[in-house]
Structure prediction request, 509 residues.
Amino acid sequence: MGVMNDPLTNDLFPQALLPVTLQGPADLEGFRRAARSLLALQMLPEQVSWHSSDTPVQDLFSAGIAGVVEATTAIHKAAFSDAPPVSVPPEFVTLCETAILHSDPNRFGLLYRILWRLVHEPGLRHDPLDADRVKAQQMAQAVRRDKHKMKAFVRFRTVQDETFRNNPEGGPLHVAWFEPEHHIVEAIAPFFARRFTQMRWAVLTPERSIQWDGAQLTFGPGASKSDAPPPDAGEKLWLTYYENIFNPARLKMKMMQKEMPRKYWHNLPEAVLIAPLAAGAHKSNANMVEQVPAALARRMPSIRVLPVAVAAIDVHDGSAVRSLPTLRDLTKHCRECPIGACATQAVCGEGPLHAHLMFVGEQPGDQEDLQGRPFVGPAGQLLDRAFDELGIQRGEVFVSNAVKHFKYELRGKRRIHKTPTQREAAACQHWLDDEIAMVQPRLLVALGATAARSLLGRAVPVMANRGQVFERDDGRKVLVTLHPSALLRLPAEEREAAYAAWLADLDIQ
Prediction:
């Protein structure tokens, strides 16, 4: 090492660097050993030139300076235990494990420079915006992304190799071709071994190849795309499946290309279908919209445990309930969905039969669940205010909910409202149908999206359709607007304007 620090030598060979050669492009252990030895020898980052055994050394003066060669030999022969321990943050070790897999030939120099600075500049570990650290993090992120893409975009094809012909019970060999951007093949191999433990497979890449025989991973040299097998019957089946699960209503080309960049398409069999499926998406979507919706079954299969007195009133064989008292008794014991088991009580609609107007909300709230009456909490008070301003008498309208039990989650001692699922709303559908059949309203008012879906049998975007009147299959009219609780959730400065607009929706007289 004396040659490297001799002033005369430095003057004669100002460009001379110490070449350090690692055993392969992802030799983390070799990098750690060399870096610790270099630190012990006080070698500055700019005095070191890093190489891997698969890349020839290109430094101008490295081959002709005996002292440099001797120093390199000393570095390579330095035992790991001879170098003093180096204290670095644990996250730097993790960063090295990933960033060293990057394809940038300067990655070793960058990581050694960060290591040197961590040792000599203690403040660096507290500076996440340092340019070197940011660049290394970007390298690590690129490697993680490349790993993710390899997991997602590897496509296997079957090959009946010699092993299969001698032992067909073991299954054919599954071979895939992939072109990673970085040196990730050996790092990603254990994932595929865990994922496809029961089958024999091989993944070919230009740099490295992996093979799994069902018990052991082996690595080999790189291959060319021509070594991969041609399409097989399984691929045709996959293309048929891909074509049939394509949903034109959910097509977002920019997002798809972000998650599946075009550079991967030439190795994906389904890529040939993307362009024609995308081109026909608008027409396919229009055809889906025009299709007549499937009619909902009147009742879902259920298991009820009814008291003898209630069972005597109505065994409920699927026929409609014709009286409100009977409906209340039956809904108390309804267990067609899990909500009923947790609520205090069922909350059915109330109001005069044959009312001209019927208002339908989503479900009972906390106060409704405790009192057993619909719209008596804060949302109900806002609805009552609207009735007063519109000249509607509460006692002259029928108010109810699409779902008859309160769905909530506990947060401390508070019960916080949770939106019922479509399945839970569908389980209550027949109770709502019974109420409509008894009331025979002239106009139904859907307060919110859940009520609109239950009344119209399809999803209705409330904000886009508020104030509009739709017609049901049975000819009844349905006005769609917001649920009053939506107004209560608005900031105070927006509430009055929103209330005025909501009042205009409800001005139906």
Summary: The chain has four domains: 2-148, 154-227, 233-290, 308-506. The radius of gyration is 36 Å. The chain is about 45% helix and 15% strand.
